[in-house]
Amino acid sequence: MTQAPVTSKAVRRQHDREILSLALPAFGALVAEPLFLMVDSAIVGHLGTPQLAGLAIAAALLSTAVSVFVFLAYATTAAVARRVGAGDLPAAIRQGMDGIWLALLLGAAVVALTLPTAPWLVDVFGASDTAAPYAVTYLRISGLGIPAMLVVLAATGVLRGLQDTRTPLYVAIAGFAANGALNLGLVYGAGLGIAGSAWGTVIAQCGMAAAYLVVVVRGARRHGASLRPDPAGIRASAQAGVPLLVRTLSLRAVLMIATAVAARLGDAEVAAHQIILSLWSLMAFALDAIAIAGQAIIGRYLGADDADGARQVCRRMVQWGALSGVVLGALLIVTRPLFVPLFTGDTTVQDTLLPALLVVAVSQPISGVVFVLDGVLMGAGDGPYLAWAMLLTLAVFAPVALLVPTLGGGLTALWWAMTLMMTVRMGTLWFRMRSGRWIVTGATR
Length: 445
Description:
Layout lengths: L7 H38 L3 H19 L3 H15 L3 H36 L7 H12 L2 H16 L4 H24 L4 H30 L7 H35 L1 H37 L3 H37 L3 H33 L3 H24 L4 H25 L10
Helix pairs in contact: 1-2, 1-7, 1-8, 1-10, 2-5, 3-4, 3-6, 3-9, 3-10, 4-5, 4-6, 4-8, 4-9, 5-8, 6-8, 7-8, 9-10, 9-13, 10-11, 10-12, 11-12, 12-14, 13-14
GO molecular function, one term: xenobiotic transmembrane transporter activity
Pfam families: MatE
Keywords: Cell membrane, Membrane, Transmembrane, Transmembrane helix, Transport
């Protein structure tokens, strides 16, 4: 009896199962991360306004420092997934260990810079005299946890490359629970104040890093992979991460320019902008989960020398991204009467917010495609192209955004500029996807 040929519908179902099995746990882990800061803010907020202001400044500095190194997760995911696709698990884990060693080295360097410069950094951020001591205390203590935070990034990349997004979800949930309990115990039980909050976060982050290392080390021993640092491998991991670092810094520059322009428009505009940016970031978590699935799946297909499979799953993920964007945009429009009053009761801010929010909703399908193609090209190890594409996007966006106040535009005009930015990104990524030049098969790119 001959086997029936696999239909295109069956292939799509297979791709859908793969995408969902990776994206849903990834989304849960992504959402858990910002909850750390929310818990810290809720607990420290009851100590007083200066303490909360100090936490806000220190947390902004820490999140910036850590987010710059997000390439540790992205580059490691792609490299490990390729080795998995090639059927070489020992080399995949060895590749992941190189990323973890790089994270430790970078973390140590950041700590060495942060501790002595903490007062200066806090001052640059414009902390008041009453908030500055608390900000310095929190920054210096929490800074000790930066190596653990970077190890978490790299180890998350290892597990994603191994097609495992469930373990990061479990670790994130456990870390969130531990962080909350430790903060309560140390801030109020031990009477350590804001220092207790910082120590609680450090301990929780170290616990998460330890949990990841246990999983990775067990895998290394099971498959006979070396755990010792390999200078050549660490150097290769760093080189792969440089283009993604450029991409991340360029994207950060876009967001900083947008906030600076909003601040020039007025208090109501910058307040509304902050609300929209928070919502935009929340929706980005959902879209980024699909991108993470793309990184892992595309890397595996290319490592297995399956160029056709990579093309097919890429097309399917683009459809997922666009559809997810449509759904998120529709939800934003339908639910805006419910959530807008939760953010602000100021009618001026609300009136400024609503038209700009509609622009964000309309642009969500574009964002969905951008996030997915970003993940596809990361999974393919196409970092240099992503860096140049993001630099081009920044060059287009910056003058347009800076002209908004000059031409008398308001917040809605600024978010049309943000939509232009996403459209340029989509154009550059779509061009690369259609060219096929991202398709380089084999265990290494």
